[in-house]
Amino acid sequence: MSRPQTQEQAVDAEGDSSLYRNDEEGTQSSHRMLGFSDALLSIIATVMILPVTHTEISPEQQFDKSIQKLLATRIAVYLMTFLIVTVAWAAHTRLFQVVGKIDDTLALLNLACMMTITLLPYTFSLMVTFPDVPLGIFLFCMCVIAIGSVQALIVGYAFHFPHLLNPQIQYSTHRALSRQHVLRLVLRGPALCFVAAVFSLFFFPMVSLRSSGAVSN
To answer: Of 172, 70, 90, nearest to 130 (Cα)?
Structure first.
């Protein structure tokens, strides 16, 4: 009686291992993708200083209040966008401390996230060139919201397929709490940018109306 039972247990174990191998097929470590993302983010953070350094000031031009205001605006916008990129990098690094392996879907989601991040210097140049126009701020906020949304999709996908998670998270009894913590970290910046986008749509038209009314008077 003991021999058939041992064979059944062996069959069950073989079935479980085959299912595990099927889940593992097509996956690889996330270290290479994380290195690629870190390199891309460092390039983006470096490129964003270019609109500030390429401010054209002729030798005959006096360093008056208008030039000081222009430089102060560009530096302030640069510091803000650099902070946002740093927050996105920290969230991305924390995310892939939880995700230990990637498949094709996760790789495509990460590429979509990186593609959206590469648009940040363009929106930064719009904010620097046209500081009184809300379009630059609005597009910048939309990019940050899109980045957070894609990162949230990565979190949901990874936790839906636990074999992609870090082994410590995969076998943890508090996996749901870990997912909530990572989602809060990822969506914190986009939530603030959503408020800023709504504020820019309503605040700038009011300022322009007030300024036009003052000029007419």
So the answer is: 70
Q: Rounded distance, CA 25 to CA 28, Å?
A: 9
Q: Go through the chain and tell me how many residues it has.
A: 217
105 and 157 Cβ atoms separated by less than 8 Å: yes
Residue type, 38: D
What region, left, alpha or beta, does residue 168 occupy, with left being phi > 0 and alpha being psi -120 to 50 degrees? alpha
The pLDDT tens digits of the residues spanning 56-79 come to: 666 666 666 777 777 777 787 788
Interval 108-135 mean pLDDT: 83
Sign of the torsion formed by the C-alpha atoms of 72, 78, 81 and 83: negative
Residues 6+ apart with CB under 8 A from 124: 48, 51, 77, 78, 81, 136, 140
Alpha-carbon dihedral 108, 109, 114, 120, rounded to 10 degrees: 130
Q: What residues pair up with 29 in beta bridges, in sequence order?
A: 101
Kindly report, residue by residue over 132-155, the tens digit of the pLDDT: 777 777 888 888 889 888 989 998
